[in-house]
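Here is one chain, start to finish.
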Amino acid sequence: MILFRLVVAPTKMAMLELHGSDEAWNDEEDALCLQSNVFAAGAQGATAAFVAAILSAMAEPLAGWVNRLLVKRMTVGEALKEMNFKLMANFFLTTFPTNMLKFPVFEIINMAMSFTAVSAGLSGTISGFLFCTAMLPVTNYRFRKSMGWEIKPALLYQAYLPTVVRDILYGWARGFVGVALAKVFQPQTFLQDAFVFAFVIWAACIISSPCNEWRGYTLQPKDKKLSFGEYFKPVNYARSTGIGATIMGISLFVGRLITPFAESAFAYLKGHPVVGVAILAACIGGFKLISGGEEEEEEAKTEEPAAATEEK
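Its structure:
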């Protein structure tokens, strides 16, 4: 699921109005326009991935925390005990390259769908199916990384059916709820638009949450798998869904507000690539240094009891 939606070109219908009639368009012009805008969407999706990686450095570890609520059925206190800065630092190093894959793909699909005459709900449904089918290995890689589980190629398409149904339902819900709320609230300012956007995300997460629970049930390790009756309890469902949807809504709300400033910063970095590379290298190096230092501390703590036992 993307952090924010880029609008990089008008739809075909808007362009038709600009030209005055359908006759102004022929098959060759359609193809060229679609091709150029799809490539533009991919390029801007890649730029968005830089922004998302920084924001996700804080949001994604929380997603890993929610994964513990979803799959392991932990309490909030138990999940918090398993989270530490080492996990956050390591997961940032996973977030950046996976965002560079996921963002351009979604934007290309989204831009291609904008050239069709289908409704917003159907467009979201098709986008959800295509995106899930193409990006499920990346989604499962990030999921298993956040859980600290072994990553095997055979498991990268695990839980395809519940995931694709969830993403289709989520895509449809975003399109349907987005149009409905825009008509009801009619946001006039950027801040109002961000609030409506956040509520659309929250509502879409709630609507698609039964399939997310189904996905979580499917992803349980075989040796620790809970029975159907133990897993599907109202309190567990309310906890994982409520927290997950709220975190997603807040994260994307903040992301929408920060986007103009972040885009200005990255526009500067495009003109000064050396500065951008230096900042990126410093961030990655800092995360590795901190996470490596914590690993050494943990190893030292483990060795101390062993040394004491040998002395006795």
